[in-house]
Amino acid sequence: MSYDHITVSREGRYLTVTMNRPERRNALSLAHMTELIDAFAKASKTDAAGIVLAANGTVFSAGHDFADMAGASLHDMRTLLKTCTELMTLIQSVPQVVIAQVQGLATAAGCHLVGTCDLAVAADTAGFSLPGGKAGWFCHTPLVALARNLGRKRALEMALTGDVISAASAAESGLVNRVVPVADLAHETLALLRRATRGSALSKGLGKQCFYDQVDLDQPKAYAHAVEVMASASQTPEGRESVNSFLEKRPAHYRLERRGEQPSHRFRCRPRRAPARGRSASSPRRSAPRRSWPAP
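Above: the chain sequence. Below: its structure as tokens.
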């Protein structure tokens, strides 16, 4: 698939997916989101350790492209929003660490993207808002992600007022990990990503998946799930090497590559999948068939 709205590049162990519609403030049109879905799906099958989500221009993303929405039918709007949900779910489903590099304003679905990424670094020039609260179309879907990043009161304040919050306020609230001078943004984003991708890629990907699987469960169910995954992971070559290298006081040597060999000890872990297009978005998230991680 050739891209008109994004670019994809690789340097060493890391991929960068860059939104490249600065003339449209990187608005998330249906075509733009489809390209992002394709890029992240392909990235998930590579041996890249991490993915940077960046943007060209002065705005990170202004959210949905209203040009897609003028006069759209209910069916068309459902398709658009389900595509957005598919993108957000995919970002949290890929085994790589995904980090947002936010250089400017992120509003509505653009703010939704930041809240969905595993990590985020913002420039001191960035701002964040859910502007639907001061207009006629509330930011229902972006609030799903923000409610899982911020406390309820802060999430609702953003959603109800539509006010832009500064990068510093976003860091204080937990929407981004840190704020840096804009001149240092790329360097600091990569530095955090490097630290977040140390160690076994298999273990890291499984840890990410388990986190998102358990975070919305009640505590007893969360512990039950985490215990099973952690116990099973101890039987993989990666888990055993981690213990043995510690006891033998030597550097660990991890055998498995992300998309290479399968663990000799197979275990099951729930995948996170977006509702298939055409399927009701209200279908239970955890009703999908289980499969082994990682996929070949």
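DSSP finds ten helices and twelve strands in the chain.
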